Amino acid sequence: MLSTFIVVVVVVVVVVLAVVVGLGTKSKIQTLKTSNWMMTSSTKR
Length: 45
What we know:
Keywords: Membrane, Transmembrane, Transmembrane helix. By secondary structure, this protein is mostly helical. The chain has helices at about 1-25, 30-45. The protein has a domain at about 10-35. The chain is about 95% helix and about 0% strand. The longest helix is centred in the first third of the chain and has 25 residues, at about 1-25. The termini are far apart.
């Protein structure tokens, strides 16, 4: 029971990491732009 739960958790973590890495390599510039926009909008307030 516990071992299957651990396997599921590991699989989910691997999938999430793969998605994050895949999206990160494609949209690093986009994320930087978004974070910069968020910072500028928060400082304006």
